[in-house]
Write a structure and sequence with these properties.
There is one protein chain. This protein is of the alpha/beta class. It is 40% helix and 20% strand. The chain contains 12 helices and 14 strands. The strands form 4 sheets. It has an 8-stranded parallel barrel. Strands 3-4 form a two-stranded antiparallel sheet. A two-stranded antiparallel ribbon has the order 7-8. A hairpin with a 4-residue loop joins strand 7 and strand 8. Helix 6 crosses helix 7. The N terminus is likely disordered.
C-alpha cells in the first residue's frame, strides 16, 4: 500500500483535455486513465455534444473519472446559446463540474481570419457582456459558476478603441461572471497577467497554464519563456482556485500525451501545487 499512497500524494494540478482531444476522440476512457497516470488530479472537459461528454452520459462520465481519482472541475461549452443553456447547464451539473466556461464569444460571434490566422469577434464588447451576464445568472441558478476564457484579441483594442476584456471586467457583475485567464494568450497580446490581477483582483478563478517558445509557439510548461513563478506569486491576488495545463498544438514530433508529462514535471519545478 505504501507505493499507492505515495503515488496518490504526487497527484496534483489540472489538465485541459483539449490538449489531448485527438486521443480523447479515439478512446476517451483510456486517455483519461493516461491523464491520471501522468499525475494530474483535476480535469477540464472540451468534448460535449448531444447531451454527452466524450460519448458518455453525464452520470457515466462523473462515475468513470471519479474511479480514476480525477476531479471534474470545469468544462468548455462553446456551443451554448441562450436557448439551450438551461439544458446544457443541467448536464454540466450532473457530470460533477463546478465551472461552466465560455471558451470564445458564443452564438456565432467568434471570427477567425484564416488568411491572417487572427481571431476576433463581431457584435462588440457590450453585446458580449450582456450575453455573459444572462448566461451567468442561469449558471448561478443551476448551481454552477460561469467563467469566460480569453484568447489574444480580448486584450487588444477593437475597432471602437475598446479593450474587450477591460469592458467585460468592468461591466459584468462578479456574482455572475468571472474569468479563466489563458496565460499564453495574454502574453501573446503583449499584456501582463500580474497587472490585470492588480487592477481586477479576485476575478481570475482558473488559469490556463501553457508556455511559449522562442518562436511564439505553444510549448510544454517550463520549456518556454513565460515567467510562471512571477505569476504564481500573485495567485491569491488573482483569485485563482484551480489551474489547467493546456497546449493547443505540439511541434517537432512531440505527442500530446508526452507533452503533458513534461508539463507536469515543469509544474513541480516551478512550484505549482
Amino acid at each position: 500500500m505504501g507505493v499507492l499512497t505515495t503515488h496518490a500524494q504526487e497527484k496534483f494540478g489540472g489538465l485541459a483535455l483539449y490538449t489531448v482531444r485527438d486521443a480523447m476522440g479515439e478512446d476517451a476512457r483510456a486517455t483519461l486513465k493516461a491523464v491520471a497516470d501522468a499525475g494530474y488530479k483535476n480535469i477540464e472537459a472540451a468534448g460535449y455534444s448531444d447531451g454527452k461528454f466524450y460519448n458518455m452520459t453525464p452520470a457515466e462520465f462523473k462515475t468513470y473519472v471519479k474511479q480514476l481519482g480525477l476531479n471534474p472541475i470545469s468544462t468548455h461549452q462553446g456551443s451554448v446559446t441562450l436557448e439551450n443553456a438551461d439544458a446544457m447547464m443541467a448536464d454540466v451539473k450532473a457530470a460533477g463540474f463546478q465551472y461552466f466556461v465560455i471558451p470564445v464569444p458564443p452564438m456565432g460571434l467568434f471570427k477567425v481570419d484564416s488568411e491572417t490566422r487572427t481571431m476576433g469577434m463581431t457584435g462588440g464588447a457590450e453585446n458580449l457582456a450582456n450575453i455573459l451576464t444572462t448566461l451567468g445568472k442561469k449558471a448561478k441558478k443551476a448551481g454552477l459558476k460561469l467563467l469566460y476564457h480569453n484568447h489574444d484579441f480580448e486584450y487588444l483594442k477593437d475597432t471602437e478603441g475598446i479593450v474587450p476584456i477591460d469592458y467585460l471586467l468592468e461591466h459584468c457583475d462578479p456574482k455572475y461572471v468571472n474569468f479563466q485567464m489563458d496565460l499564453y494568450w495574454v502574453t501573446k497580446a503583449g499584456a501582463d497577467p500580474v497587472a490585470y490581477f492588480n487592477k481586477y483582483p479576485k476575478r481570475f478563478k482558473i488559469w490556463h497554464v501553457k508556455d511559449m517558445d522562442d518562436q511564439g509557439r505553444f510549448a510544454p510548461v517550463g520549456k518556454g519563456q513565460i515567467d510562471f513563478a512571477r505569476i504564481l506569486a500573485n495567485k491569491e491576488l488573482s483569485g485563482m482556485k484551480y489551474y489547467m495545463v493546456e497546449q493547443d498544438r505540439t511541434f517537432d514530433d512531440l505527442k500530446p500525451l508526452e507533452a503533458i508529462k513534461i508539463s507536469h514535471e515543469g509544474l513541480k519545478e516551478i512550484g505549482f501545487k
